[in-house]
Structures are given as structure tokens and as C-alpha cells.
TrEMBL record:
Molecular function as annotated in GO: ATP binding
The name this protein goes by in its record: ABC-2 type transport system ATP-binding protein
Family: Belongs to the ABC transporter superfamily.
PROSITE patterns assigned to the protein according to its UniProt record, in alphabetical order: ABC_TRANSPORTER_2
This protein's record includes keyword Nucleotide-binding: yes
């Protein structure tokens, strides 16, 4: 279990993480979401003692990370797939980690086999693709057979088979009663993987709820209906006290309606239905709705591709260039 209490991180006048409190529980996959710049990576670094909080606390199974003996046996983490010595082989990279935490050499072979890197175990990591680096990082997280796993963007660089594999792995780990905490911008994959969501924006907690409740609370749910007997169906629905929204193309929509009830009502009145389908927003749509006011970097799609400085209607690029120079110096 991971417990955050009032966790805050400031960099000068900038508040990267603002009084975050939540608990990551065992037995489920918890997704960690937020727009770019929301403070996700900073939060995860503070969980592992890589950044010191300005205020607040983080406990790993009731202890501070720096007080854990052989920490890889408590919590395994992948934060950066390239955080390894490129001159070492995959085997030796993992062996160094194992020896530093009292983990037997045999475990290195086991995790290499688990992530599918046995055939390249003796090759240097600097020659690995991003996907192979991700697999090696995941092997490092699994090395101590920990009860807590934490992954930051684990599917980056993976092919479809690899994405399916890591999704299955995380679900399997959670089913074993382990704590699994994963951050990702790939909403379609998160929707298939996570059971619970923690969402932050501008360093603040926006949501801490189940996947189903998050989508329901941040999107519109309705039933879409098409029928050749539109006017008759409208009379029947209105008579039953059902509020109907008439849209274009002869489509009717009933907010928060139950399709089985509507279907039974139509059947009793011998009304033919060509479509009766429940409509729910995707995780991406619900996420965009909740975080709309928390997005720090907005792109614009209405800028002409062939625009040139000085041409009427073309945005002045100087502020962007100045921002880039200031960012480079910081």
C-alpha cells in the first residue's frame, strides 16, 4: 500500500504538487492520470525518495522509502526506461540491482525470461530499442518480487503484442493481491487496464474513484433510438414520463435511460425499433471534460501550415521563441 498525506512540492514560486492525499490499495490496478505538467512524475519521484517533499509525507507499507531495508523487495518501479548504464549487458544491469538488495542471481534469469529478453541477456543495453529498454526496466521492477509495483508510461515503445503482455501482467499482479500503480497518457489502454483512477491537475487532486464512477460522473450517458414510428414512440415515451431529446436525422436520445425498459415499452405498443443502443463516453472524453481547466499547454489547430512571419493573419512567433530561450536557460 502507498499512502500520501498532504504531499507538496515547490520549486521556487512554482507549486508542482499541491497538498496531495490519497491511498493506492492492493488487489487492483490504480491508474494515475493528469495533463502534461500536472505533477505526476514529481509525485512518483517523491514516492521513491528521489525528490524531497516540501511538505507532507509518503509511506510505503507504513514506512518511509529511505528506511526500507532492501527496498526492491518492497516496491519495484519503472520511471525511466533509459535509466541504466548503456555499457552493461541486460544481465549485468539486473545482477547489479540484485546484489545491492540481497536478491539471488537465479532471480535475474527468471525476470529476463518473464519479460522476453533471455535471448539478448548478454547484449549491451545501449543497443536496445525503446521497447526493449521498457522490458528491461520492467524486469528491474519485478526483480525483488515486491508487493508494490509502480510504472510510469510502461507501454511506450512497445508493439501491440508487448502492450497486451504488460496489460495482462499488471492485471495478474493485482489479482495476486499486489499494489499496482501505473501512469499513462494512453487512455484507451488505461481504460482496459485500470480498476481505479487517481486524477490530478496542476498538482491538485481532481478525482479518486473507480473507473466506472469516473466516467459516469464526468460524461453524459444516454440511450440512442431510431424508429420508423417516431411520432408514436414520442407519445408513448412522454406518456411514461420519459424526457426525450430530438436530434437530427430522426434520432431520439434519452438521458440516463435503461434500454431494456425502453425496448419493453416499445414492444407493448408494437412499435418497431431500428436502433436501441446505450451510449457512454470513453475514458478519454471523461478525462478531457474533467481536466479542461487544468491543461497547461494548449495547442492550436487553426494556424495555417504555410504561415510566415509578417503575413497578415499569421501569429507572431517571437513570444514562443522567447519562451523557448527562457526555458533553455532555466
Amino acid at each position: 500500500m502507498i499512502e500520501l498525506s498532504g504531499l507538496t512540492k515547490r520549486y521556487g514560486d512554482t507549486v508542482a504538487v499541491n497538498n496531495l492525499s490519497f491511498t493506492v490499495r492492493p488487489g487492483i490496478v490504480t491508474g494515475f492520470l493528469g495533463p502534461n505538467g500536472a505533477g505526476k512524475s514529481t509525485t512518483m519521484r517523491m514516492m521513491l525518495g528521489l525528490d524531497r517533499p516540501t511538505a507532507g509525507d509518503v509511506l510505503i507499507d507504513g514506512q518511509h522509502y529511505d528506511r526500507l531495508r532492501d527496498p526492491l523487495t518492497y516496491i519495484g518501479a519503472l520511471l525511466d526506461a533509459k535509466a541504466m548504464h548503456g555499457g552493461r549487458s541486460a544481465f549485468n544491469h539486473l545482477l547489479c540491482l540484485a546484489q545491492s538488495n540481497g536478491i539471488p542471481r537465479s532471480r535475474v534469469h527468471e525476470v529476463l525470461d518473464t519479460v522476453g529478453l533471455t535471448s539478448v541477456a548478454r547484449k549491451k543495453a545501449k543497443g536496445f530499442s525503446l521497447g526493449m529498454g521498457q522490458r528491461l526496466g520492467i524486469a528491474g521492477a519485478l526483480l525483488g518480487d515486491p508487493r508494490i509495483l509502480m510504472f510510469d508510461e510502461p507501454v511506450n515503445g512497445l508493439d501491440p503484442e508487448g502492450i497486451h503482455w504488460i496489460r495482462t501482467l499488471m492485471k495478474s499482479l493485482a489479482s495476486q493481491g499486489r499494489t499496482v500503480f501505473v501512469s499513462s497518457h494512453l487512455m484507451s489502454e488505461m481504460a482496459l487496464t485500470a480498476d481505479h483512477l487517481v486524477v490530478i491537475g496542476q498538482g491538485r487532486l481532481l478525482a479518486d474513484t473507480s473507473m466506472a464512477d469516473f466516467i459516469a460522473q464526468n460524461s453524459r450517458s444516454y440511450v440512442r433510438i431510431r424508429t420508423p414510428q417516431r411520432e408514436r414512440l414520442l407519445d408513448v415515451l412522454h406518456g411514461a414520463g420519459t424526457v426525450v431529446v430530438e436530434t437530427g436525422g430522426g434520432v431520439l436520445e434519452v438521458d440516463d435511460g435503461k434500454p431494456e425498459h425502453i425496448g419493453e415499452l416499445a414492444a407493448r405498443h408494437q412499435i418497431v425499433l431500428h436502433e436501441l443502443s446505450p451510449q457512454r463516453a470513453s475514458l478519454e472524453e471523461a478525462f478531457m471534460q474533467l481536466t479542461a481547466e487544468s491543461v497547461q499547454y494548449h495547442a492550436h489547430t487553426d494556424v495555417p501550415m504555410d504561415a510566415s512571419p509578417g503575413v497578415p493573419g499569421t501569429p507572431d512567433v517571437q513570444p514562443l521563441q522567447q519562451w523557448g530561450d527562457d526555458w533553455t536557460r532555466s
